[in-house]
Prior knowledge:
Helix content: 25-40%
Number of domains: 1
Shape: globular
Distance between the termini: 48 Å
Structural class: alpha+beta
Amino acid sequence: MEKSKSMENSTDKAASSAKMDKNGASEKPDLMELYPIRLFEWETDEETQNIIVLRPKFTSKLAKKIILPFYGQKFFKIKFDALGSMVWKLADGEHTVGQILKAMEEKFTDEEDLANRLSKFIYQLVREKFIQLLQRVEDANEVNN
């Protein structure tokens, strides 16, 4: 299986996901303009080409040292379907959610309501801390000027 590292170091092009309006108040950004970035390692299933996310079983150093030796695996393996795999592959900090949606619409022409499915999936990945949503620094500076 092919392995890949997370893209945690790609934050140089991105900042927080909050915009400021003219009065300096925080404004919720449009999901389609944000850049998702993966936070975990992953593998590609050679047979299906779908993604398997490797989520660590333990995050604390103490648990890793004491409990992990009794467990055979360091990771939970979460298998994604074709849609989820495409989202994961493109969640590299270089593509916006809108660009991911466009790529999905081109590939999965028979699927219905992709925008709604994608937004729910993105929010689920954020809630479970699989990804972060970032905003380009230039975008944030534009709003402040």
